[in-house]
Amino acid sequence: MDTITLWELVALAGAATLVGFSKTAVSGANTVSLAIFAAVLPARESTGILLPLLIVGDVFAVRAYRRHADWATLVRLFPAVAAGVVAGTVFMLWADDAAVRTSIGVILLVMASVTVWRRRTAGQQAREQKGQGEEEGRGEPAGEGRSRARLKAGSYGVLGGFTTMVANAGGPVMSMYLLSAGFRKLGFLGTSAWFFLVVNVAKVPFSVGLGLIDGHSLLLDAGLALCVVPGAFLGRAVVDRINQRLFERLVIAATVVGGLQLLLR
């Protein structure tokens, strides 16, 4: 790892704060952190450095929303996610920094497109599911059989596992799945919190084996982790007051810029 300048360290600290904020408030903000880490650091190494910070944020998210998880959904997802993580690990075995940087850039642009599509369909889903619970739990879309539900969980799970292993970018994929499954606010936050804590912890041995996490990366993480904490508390404090539409627009714009920057770098 090359020497980090003061301004690069400031950028990483800001991105780490955004990690904490995204875990307890707006998950889409995490793609901005991913873009900053991949721009400041070698893209391949950035995934290993970011992972422990994500776990710190996951701990705060679970602490805040632990009672609202739907474990039946999590159990249904985990086998497919494991397959996606293994596929992502195989990819990382041969991918050099240029390939990882390109992959992260493409994933960011795809995730931004998915988020735009999700925003356009969320209103329609909300109207269809009105009356099934305003804050907590979920309502399965009408007519969705068990085989279709398993197929959907499998496809989202594999894609989420791959993207989270390669780029720590499984958030938008899982958001799409949970929203399509009819999760309301607290059920969404609680299930997502437990999902990413379990998956990110499970990714650690793979990242160590790939050489993405070592003593040097953990030393940098030790300092940056201090920035995750205030972001997590800030997100928890303002989660009910955020202008979601404006914030998502800013996140999408920043994600697109970050993805293009990585592709053109």
Automatic annotation (TrEMBL):
Keywords: Cell membrane, Membrane, Transmembrane, Transmembrane helix, Transport. InterPro entries: TM_pro_TauE-like, TSUP. The chain crosses the membrane at residues 48-65, 77-94, 100-117, 218-239, 246-264. It is a multi-pass membrane protein. Residues 123-148 are annotated as: Disordered. It comes from the Bacteria. Coiled coil: none annotated. Belongs to the 4-toluene sulfonate uptake permease (TSUP) (TC 2.A.102) family. This is Probable membrane transporter protein. It comes from Streptomyces cuspidosporus. The lineage of its organism: Bacteria, Bacillati, Actinomycetota, Actinomycetes, Kitasatosporales.
